[in-house]
Design goal:
Oligomer: single chain
CATH class of the largest domain: Mainly Beta
Structural class: mainly beta
CATH architecture of the largest domain: Sandwich
Helix content: under 10%
Distance between the termini: 153 Å
Number of strands: 29
Radius of gyration: 38 Å
Number of helices: 1
Strand content: over 45%
Order of helices and strands: HEEEEEEEEEEEEEEEEEEEEEEEEEEEEE
Largest sheet: 6 strands, mixed
């Protein structure tokens, strides 16, 4: 009887312990959450805009850390002409136009203050967010001389500068930075830049923001190159010998007259290679390699020096087959200027 009483509690305890062990074995701990690794740094920090403010045209702003100058942007315009800054000249190449900026600088201090090309710097930002830096030439509007003067207290000077841009480049934003430290001015130029005018504007772009590399030109009107202005004056035909050169049988000379003016500040030598002529017929371009560069009087092998402001007449004599139909004549300054195109209307070479 005593043995049975002892066995029953022991059996109950064993069963209870087994249940506890089974329950513990069935309950698994929750899985650990994966630990996120810190991102690998590229070493490139996000670009931070320069401190500054948005500004409006024709509104004055203090510039510089110590407010050393009052700046006012007056106007913006595209141009394919040259700009003079005293003895320096900026021209637009064949694939370029200029963004011309007119502005004023005023001295807010109680003492005189020097202003020059370094007083402010200009950067145009194109539609692809590329920076187009200014030329750092600054001229005085009153005399077209380079800016370098001392402003008296409250004195103001009207100025201009330019930025080179590709022919099809838009410049929706302008940044004006003071010399040294200080916040910049930002201008939204949408709809505020005066467009190009014919014949330089691409007619496809009615805003006038796109410049032509090949410009349709009028007879007798001077057009700007790099160092020279030039124009087409007319065409005539001569058989046999002309400008000291004899034509082959069945050929003659298409004599194209042109006017050239030296717009540079220096004396420049001019010869057959200074300005490149091209003549196009119905069957294609006619090479000038067999041609003759002549004076206005018809003297071949012409070569002369031109002083600043000099104007001369020249002749480009092309060796052309009799009866050829001529459609186009072009001139381009060999230093990389624009190409000007004159329509000859299909005139026939008759000798």
């Amino acid at each position: 009887m005593t043995t049975k009483r002892l066995l029953i509690p022991a059996l109950v305890f064993a069963i209870f312990a087994a249940c506890i062990a089974g329950a513990s074995a069935a309950k698994k701990p929750p899985p650990k959450k994966p630990v996120k690794k810190p991102p690998v740094s590229s070493g490139i920090q996000p670009a931070m805009p320069m401190p500054g403010q948005w500004a409006d045209l024709n509104k004055p702003y203090y510039m510089g850390e110590d407010k050393y100058i009052v700046f006012t942007l007056k106007s913006c315009a595209f141009s394919c002409d040259r700009l003079y800054f005293g003895d320096e000249i900026v021209t637009a190449g064949g694939q370029e136009k200029l963004l011309i900026l007119k502005f004023s600088l005023q001295n807010p201090k109680k003492e005189e203050w020097t202003v020059n090309w370094a007083t402010v710097h200009f950067t145009a930002v194109d539609s692809q967010d590329n920076n187009r830096e200014g030329t750092d030439y600054v001229g005085q509007d009153i005399n077209k001389q380079g800016l370098d003067m001392r402003l008296k207290p409250a004195q103001k000077v009207e100025c201009y500068t330019c930025i080179r841009l590709p022919n099809d480049c838009l410049a929706p934003k302008l940044i004006v930075k003071p010399n040294g430290n200080g916040p910049v001015l930002r201008y939204d130029l949408h709809g505020k830049v005066k467009g190009l005018e014919p014949p330089f504007m691409d007619p496809v772009d009615t805003t006038g923001a796109t410049a032509l590399a090949d410009v349709p030109a009028e007879k007798g009107k001077l057009y700007p190159g790099v160092n020279f202005d030039f124009t087409f004056d007319g065409i005539k035909f001569a058989g046999g010998t002309y400008a000291d050169s004899e034509a082959d049988e069945g050929y003659g000379w298409a004599v194209v007259s042109a006017t050239i003016k030296n717009q540079a500040k220096d004396t420049i030598n001019i010869n057959w290679a200074t300005i490149t002529p091209k003549l196009k017929g119905k069957s294609g371009w006619i090479s000038f390699s067999d041609g003759v560069f002549a004076s206005a009087e018809g003297t071949g092998g012409f070569d002369t020096s031109m002083e600043p402001g000099d104007t001369i007449g020249v002749q480009y004599c092309f060796h052309v087959r009799s009866g050829a139909e001529l459609n186009t004549f072009t001139l381009q300054e060999s230093d990389g200027g624009r190409t000007y195109v004159w329509d000859l209307g299909g005139v026939k070479a008759e000798y």
